[in-house]
Request: fold
Amino acid sequence: MLLPSSLASLSATADVLRRAGCVFAEDEAALLHEAAASPEELALLVGRRTGGLPLEHVLGWAEFCGRRFAVDAGVFVPRRRTEFLVRHAVALAPDPAVVVDLCCGSGALGAVLAGALDRVELHACDVEPAAVRCARRNLGGLGVVHEGDLFGPLPERLLGRVDVLLANVPYVPSADVELLPAEARVHEPRVALDGGGDGLDVMRRVAADAPRWLAPGGSLLVEASERQRDAAVEVLRGAGLSARVVVCEELYATVVIGTAGTRDPVGRGRVPNPGGQD
Ligand SMILES: C[S@@+](CC[C@H](N)C(=O)[O-])C[C@H]1O[C@@H](n2cnc3c(N)ncnc32)[C@H](O)[C@@H]1O
Reply:
């Protein structure tokens, strides 16, 4: 057990954190000092962190797109790289927009997107009760959070009306979950990480149903690893969406954007985008 006196200064706390393997020890020390109301609480928080709990779970919040979102124990911590997906979603959203954040976790993605738009109807869904509770806190009155499997809990009136479908689904191949850092492997639920054999099982299910829910010209945005990019493009194209890839090397982010066809002017249904790709 750490004694409070060993944490009397920021640099002493940073030393303790560094010895425990925290790479950004100074930054973390500052955040933990800010969060603790007393030396005893600081010792408790530092003990949790050096015990391996993700910093965000120790603090109870994560920074995403410059804002702080509540992240409860057992809820996936939104990653910096996913800010890239949200930036593209903001650029694609019409005004007004119907937005669905599938597999919403803490709800941070939908909250940022809704905050960037003037008129939005936002629905978020997750299968994990802890994520649903957390997303409800983060969204407040911004949108409705549903609990259940993928599109299952969405109201049917949204069929064919979704302009932007955010789906940062789990995409780690099952065999690679054991290789993840302990912070994710031990403290985030497996259902938030494991995407099946090649990591794309949940993405396949989302893509297969997406055309029924998307409005004409609406977009599905998914994240993948660099290794999965070609397979992910095929998944979206196989579902009848046009697909393009955008990459941010700085954030190690790969996003595949699938777009639904627009309405045929003579009313024969959807016209796919030219060539089915961008
Ligand atoms: C990689 S996390 C992403 C969370 C959030 N979108 C983000 O980027 O911070 C994947 C989320 O998908 C949820 N999930 C996994 N399978 C699901 C399913 N079949 N239906 C609904 N949610 C699911 C998990 O509970 C988890 O919150």
About this structure: The longest strand covers residues 214-224. Residues 158 and 213 are 7 Å apart (CA to CA).
